[in-house]
Design brief:
about 425 residues; Alpha-Beta Plaits; 2 domains; four-stranded antiparallel β-sheet; about 35% helix; elongated; metal-binding; EC 3.5.1.18; hydrolase; metal ion binding; cobalt
Length: about 425
């Protein structure tokens, strides 16, 4: 049987069993796995039992209390290439249930849509990875290499106990990786901006409000001046390295032609974005505030490092003659990407076209994800998964059923191209 014939056989098998795939996705959504609190016990037990039904062994790794990483490997582990399929079980909290038009944990299918928290991010993609793995096992496909399914519990709060924990402890390794994170139907994300989150604390001198602005200094007033300087990060002209310019240009094309409502956001691909996320300061209107804290989320494009940003900020804030302190919060990373011609990128992109008969190409992500961890370990990686992007992390999250099926077909076909 030729490689093309084998892929068609696997794709046909997914099509024939698509109701089973959709039921699997519904079952995953029906298990609340909100993070926080981050207890993955119930969903991990469900997945492990499902895989065992098809004689797929599951290794459990508890990285933190009630946070379980599940690792399963099929194929030839003695030789050949290693491919990793990765997904996370945790979802962001559903929030105010009265603002949902349906039960966020119903897993209901209605009018061609899968409904519920995690439908797009990323239980539909996770279901596809699991299902594709079982199809290969059910048909006894003799793989010339191995496929490892890595299911992690902690992506939505930074991922410290998920992917980076597995990599640090040498539990998973591979020549390529696919993460089933939400993406556009024909455009996997093969690169992402860096992340630079920090907290700025400005110190003042308390006193009676009736003596301000002579008395002080006023921590809030000085923070306002500092914020004005921080926001100027957006104005820095950054020279994008030649090797990533094609990725930037194709991503601009994507924003113009595919997600047309995003065309106005094209500049974020080459700029430092600045979001003043929280501000907290003062005790009372008639007291000069002693402290003010601001938390800031910056995303860094290719061409600038966090060290350069820190130097810029220090220089500008020092010039204000204020007392302040900057400390990093959450994760920090540099802009990173995988070459569009890397075998793992080609395996996914080529099979999107193989399955759909439509043009596909990889693009830049303006946020961050677990992909950066794989690249830190020199594992080429990209992200491709079913999603209705406007509903991610919001109310009434959903995804088209047809997309779930399409992605599962791509997943199972890509294994063949990558490993053979």
């Amino acid at each position: 049987m030729s490689k093309v014939e084998l892929k068609k056989k696997l794709i046909d098998e997914v099509e024939a069993r698509k109701e089973e795939l959709i039921q699997l996705c519904s079952s995953l959504i029906q298990i609340p796995s909100e993070n926080p609190p981050g207890d993955s016990t119930e969903i991990s037990e469900f997945i492990a039992n499902y895989l065992k039904t098809f004689n797929i062994d599951v290794d459990w790794h508890e990285s933190a209390d009630k946070m379980y990483n599940l690792v399963s490997t099929i194929g030839n582990t003695e030789q050949g290439k290693q491919l990793i399929y990765c997904g996370h079980t945790d979802v962001v909290p559903a929030g105010d249930l009265s603002k949902w038009d349906f039960d966020p944990f119903s897993g209901e299918v209605k009018d061609g849509w899968m409904l519920g928290r995690g439908a797009s991010d990323m239980k539909a993609g996770l279901a596809g990875l699991i299902f594709a793995t079982t199809i290969l096992k059910r048909l006894n496909i003799e793989l010339p290499g191995s496929l490892t399914l890595a299911i992690v519990p902690d992506e939505e709060t930074g991922g410290e106990f998920g992917v980076p924990w597995l990599l640090k402890n040498n539990i998973i390794a591979g020549d390529g990786c696919l993460i089933a994170e939400p993406s556009s139907p024909r455009n996997p994300t093969i690169g992402q901006k860096g992340s630079y989150w920090f907290e700025l604390e400005v110190v003042g001198k308390p006193g009676h409000g009736s003596l301000s602005p002579i008395a002080g200094p006023n921590a809030i007033a000085d923070t306002v001046r500092a914020i004005q300087e921080i926001q100027k990060l957006w104005d820095i002209e950054i020279e994008v390295p030649e090797e990533v310019k094609p990725l930037i240009e194709v991503s601009k094309r994507y924003m113009k032609e595919v997600e047309k409502d995003r065309v106005k956001y094209q500049p974020v691909l080459e700029k430092i974005t600045v979001n003043i996320g929280t501000i907290q300061g003062g005790t009372k209107a008639n007291v000069i505030p002693e402290s003010c804290k601001v938390q800031v989320d910056c995303r860094l494009p290719f061409g600038i490092t966090e060290e350069e940003v820190t130097h810029y900020l220090t220089e500008k804030l020092d010039a204000l003659n204020i007392e302040y302190n900057i400390k990093p919060i959450s994760f920090r990373s540099q802009a990173n990407c995988t070459d569009a011609n890397d075998p793992v990128c080609r395996a996914i992109v080529d099979n999107i076209t193989f399955v759909t008969n439509e043009e596909a190409y990889g693009v830049m992500q303006w946020a961050s994800s677990d992909a950066r961890h794989f690249r830190e370990y020199n594992i080429p990686v990209l992200q491709y998964g079913p999603a209705y992007l406007p509903t991610i992390h919001g109310y009434n999250e959903k995804v088209e059923v047809e997309q779930i099926i399409t992605c599962a077909k791509v997943y199972v076909a890509a294994v063949i191209d990558f490993l053979y």
